[in-house]
Structures are given as structure tokens and as C-alpha cells.
Amino acid sequence: YTLGITIYHFGELFSRMGLDSGVVRYVSIYYSSGDKNRLKGVLLQAIGLPLLSGIVFGSTLFFASDPIAQGLFGKPELAPALRIFAIALPVGAATNVGAFATTGFQITQYKVYIWELLLPFINLLLAIVLCTIGFGLQGAAWAWLVALTLALAATVYFIGSIFPGIARRSPKPIFESKQLITFSLPLGFGTFAWLILLWTDVLMLGYFRSASEVGVYRAASQTSLLMNIIAGSLVTVFAPIIASLYSKGEFEEMGRVFQTSSRWSFSLTLPLFLIVGVAGKNILSIFGAEFETGWLPLVILGMGQLARAGVGGLSNHMLAMSGHQYFKLFADIGLAITNIALNILLIPLWGVMGAAVATGVSITGISMLRAALVKRALGVGIPLYNWTYLKIIVAGTTAALIGLVVQNWLEPMHFVLSALFTALVICLCYFGLLLPMGIEEADQMILVKIS
Q1: In whole angstroms, what is the distance from residue 355 CA to residue 340 CA?
Q2: CA 17 to CA 54: how far, in whole Å?
Q3: Domain boundaries defined on the chain
């Protein structure tokens, strides 16, 4: 199943053609300007274009399923499941892009309903039922297809509820497919480069080192990725706002939104990093006692994710939503190349630690590069050396020190309870110190925009 779903996700990535980012920008622009004709055109293309490209890639996968399953992986039993995943490709691509299109209206709940609630719940429920009655791998694949089909139906329904004109003759849609695809394709290639980053360290570690080291590193890397939860949620909210402000020429306002949301991303991700740094050994012990050795690599990877949350993540979307998608693409390609080179150099020397340093340094470096590109292209920088960031650092440092004391005091306790209690203490100390220092005027402005 893991092989099949991985192949599916690669196929879906190419089927989307970067439209999941493109539609957010153009829906936001046309919605804020009141251009219903072009808005209708983009919404129809949000479903239609990935559906068509998904049919092309899905057909290729369908007819190549036997050679892939038998010749490439030596698993002939994988072929029927691959054919089911091939049928799911156009459905999944259309669902993904359509769900992102709803966020262009500066409404985030529909994407959450579709992608975070409806799809995983139906998929899990059907997979349990079908596998229990004996359908095995094919049952799991059918569960994914049915869940995607229902999610696509929900996506179309939600788009219609936001913009009822999509199902009517009027307004007449205006399609600007060339503009949309030209903008989106570089973003799609950039996403592919990021996918290379996510797998390069694991694959190279597997080539140079033992399976046990790969397991330890995989646990650490997946745990560090959980730090993206806050930043990812903020991006969903702020990307359409940035696109709208840029299209209106409100560059000063856009700069304030960028700086404030970057600070939010950093300040809300910092306590997650502190928890990882202080209670990392106990967290990794959930996977087994032997995984404790991944604590230091986890901290290094966490530093990279913190840098990404602070200056890299929103810089990435600032470039995309302002029409500087090629800057973003070049940064993503640079990230992939840097990561590959550093992994080749460091893994033979330091093993798991080398993979962590390579990936952490790559993410941090590219985050800084993206911030520099935003400064160059848009004239907007992040003022790191001011009272606002200083109070975040002071609160974080104090919370970390208190967390270390509590962690040492709780050492005899069961590792799960120790990790949970330490995390609670760190969060209470951090926000207890930060909130009394006051909410900035810019923060109030952002809250008004979100509401």
C-alpha cells in the first residue's frame, strides 16, 4: 500500500501542475476586484484542468501498472491496486485544486472540511471495512478512490455555495488558461523540488548506512515536520490576503501583513521547538528506547523548521502570490541541489547526524535566501532586531530553562507523562510571559482582517 500511495501522490503532484497555488492567487484577485466573469472561469478551470491532466497521467499509470509492479518493484500483486490508484488520479487532483480554490475567497473552513475531516474519515472507515471482509490491498485502494470521489462532490458543492453563479449561465466565464498555467507550472516544479528534499536524506542514509539508522532518522525527521502545523495554517489564511493586496497595489499594507504574520508564525512555532529541544528524548522514546539517540538530530532538524516558520515559509508564498513565481522556483531548486550535495558530503562522515545537519542547514539557508528575495523583489524585510522579537526570545528562553528544570525533576516518571507535563509547563510559561507584554497594533489589524 505504501508503494502504491507514494506512486499515486507523485502522479497527483504532476496532475495538479501547480494549480493548487495558482487558483488561490487568481480567485483572490478576481473576487476582491468583483470580476465575476474571470472568477467563474478560474473556478471552472480549478476543477477541469487537473481533471484533464489527471486523466492523462492516470491513463499512463493504468497501462504501465504491470511493468511498474513486476519489473520495477518485483511485486505483481501491486498491479491491480495501481490501476485503482490510476483511476483516482484525476479525481484527487481536481479535489485538491478545488479545495485550495475555496481559500481564495479568504475562507479556510471548507478546505479543512474536505481535506482534513471528510477525506481521511471516509478513507479510514472504508479501508477498515473492506480490509476486514478480505479485500486487502485492493480494498484499501478502493477506499481511497471512493473517499476522493465523495470529497470531490463536496468540493463542487462548497464552491457552488460560495459562488452560486458557477452553476448558472450568467455570468459568462472568461477563461485565461495560458496565464493561469504559465503562473502555476513553476510552482508545481518547485513543489516537486521540495518533495525531493523530503526524501533525499532518507534515501541517501539508506544507501550509506544501516536500516536501524534510517529508522532513527525517519522518526526524528517526521517528528520535526509536526512543527509546520502552525505555519501551514497561517499560510492558508494569509496567502489570499497577500494576493489581493498586491493586485490592488496596497504594497505598504501587504508589507505589514507579511511582517506581522511572519512574527506570528515564528512566535507560535517557537514553543513547539522548545518542547522538542527539552523533551525530545522522551518524545522519541514513544517509537522505542533505541530511538532516543535521534534526539540531537531532531533538535537540528527542528532549528531548520523554526527558521522556515520565521522567515522562510511566508517569504515563499509572498513570492508566489505577488507573481514572482520564478524566484520561488529558483530557491526551491537551489534547496534541492544544496541538500543533495550536503547529504553526499556529510552522511558518510557523520551518519544520522550528517543527514540532520545537511537538511537543517539547507532549510535554514534557503529560508534566508527567500527572505532576501522578498526584500529585493518587493522591498519588504523582516525587522528581527526590535522589541517585538526580543520579548519572544526572552519568553522562549525563560520557558526553556524552566522546562529543563521540570524535565530533570520528572526523570523518574514514565516518559510519556514526563513529555506531556514538560510540554504543558513550557507552553504555560511561554504564553504566560508573552501575553502580558501586550498585543501590537499590527496584530490587532491582522485579527480584524482574519475576522
Answers
A1: 10
A2: 10
A3: 2-175, 182-450
Q: Supply the DSSP symbol for 172.
A: P
350: left (phi over 0), alpha (psi -120 to 50) or beta: alpha
User: What is the Cα–Cα distance from 396 to 390, expressed in whole angstroms?
Assistant: 10
Is the confidence at residue 429, as pLDDT, over 60? yes
Instruction: Provide, for the chain, the percentages of residues in helix, strand and coil under a 3-state DSSP scheme, each rounded to the nearest 5.
Output: 85, 0, 15
Separation CA 390–CA 266 (nearest Å)? 12
CA dist list (Å): 344 to 162, 314, 350, 355, 367 = 49, 29, 11, 9, 21
The mean per-residue pLDDT over the stretch 436-446 comes to: 62
Query: How high does pLDDT run on average in the chain?
Result: 87
pLDDT of residue 355: 93
Rounded CA separation 40/164 (Å): 10
Q: What is the pTM of this model?
A: 0.82
Q: Which residues contact 47 (CB under 8 A, 6 or more apart)?
A: 94, 97, 98, 155, 156, 159
- Could you tell me if 403 and 278 are in contact, meaning their C-beta atoms sit under 8 angstroms apart? yes
pLDDT band at 37 (very low <50, low <70, confident <90, very high): very high
The rounded distance, in Å, linking the Cα atoms of 295 and 83 is 41
Across 256-389, where does the E strand assignment appear?
none
Q: Which of 37-41, 379-383, 428-432 has the lowest mean pLDDT?
A: 379-383
CA distance 448 to 451: 5
Residue 23 has pLDDT above 80, yes or no: yes
